[in-house]
Amino acid sequence: MLDYPSVSTPRDSYSGIQTSFEQFLDLILIGIGDRAADHVDEYGNKLLYDGRAPLYSIKKIADDEGFLYPSEWIEAALSTMEHRQWTMHDTDKDDPNEDGFRVYLDPAGYERATLLVEKYYGASDQNVIPASDRLVTINHNSEAYLDLDHSLIRLINLVETSNSYREKDSIDQQQKLAELKALSELLKAPRVSPSKIQILAGAAFGFLIEQFAGAPIGELAQYVWGLVRGVLSF
Fold first, then answer.
1. Residue closest to 76 by CA, chosen among 138, 7, 20, 137
2. What whole-number distance in Å separates Cα of residue 27 and Cα of residue 61?
3. What is the rounded distance in angstroms from the CA atom of residue 217 to the CA atom of residue 11?
4. CATH number of the domain that residue 37 is part of
5. pTM for this one?
6. Mind listing the pLDDT tens digit for each residue in 25-72?
7. What percent of the chain is helix, strand and coil (3-state, nearest 5)?
8. Are residues 160 and 228 in the same domain?
9. pLDDT in tens, 5-22
10. Residue 95 lies in a domain
């Protein structure tokens, strides 16, 4: 694997700039986070949010940004980012790219992307979270929030005690539990970013609703996600 010289100073663009593999990973992560936060797909088209995290091609982002990389970095990036729990990958059966896989951000990947922006682009006002993103104040004594809090706890318990889920994929079960518990904690804050909640929790709910359709977990997940959208008005 090639190891390019390190970039030592922030830049407006990394098009045509040689980077190390680790820097390539960071820049791809920022590219995914930036597009997801703006609710656009990898072609720049506006997304109609359906409760699922959008999928992005690592190769297309790298090519669109003009990054220099050897071909083996795409597969290496896919496996490395998933191993570090920054992303999860899936196959887009409706519109596959030449590599077959796209990825979406896990909560840890989103947080890392947000922190890396200033390091690489050198301006505090260039955020993965757009400046227009609003914060919603939550009334923790409201009937809507109390229903959400109670229902989310029920969902967490259902997922945690599901033997069928454990037998099918215990690692994914623990991952979804962690994401649901993180959502529960985020909602306890006095002000919450709806955009961040969509990115952090949308994939987990989309998965539970689809994979457990017609079962208690799927039905409750759909109900809870509706409550989340109602409380946060998105």
1. 20
2. 9
3. 46
4. 1.10.10.10
5. 0.55
6. 999 998 888 887 777 777 777 766 555 567 888 898 999 889 999 989
7. 55, 5, 40
8. yes
9. 344 456 678 888 888 999
10. yes
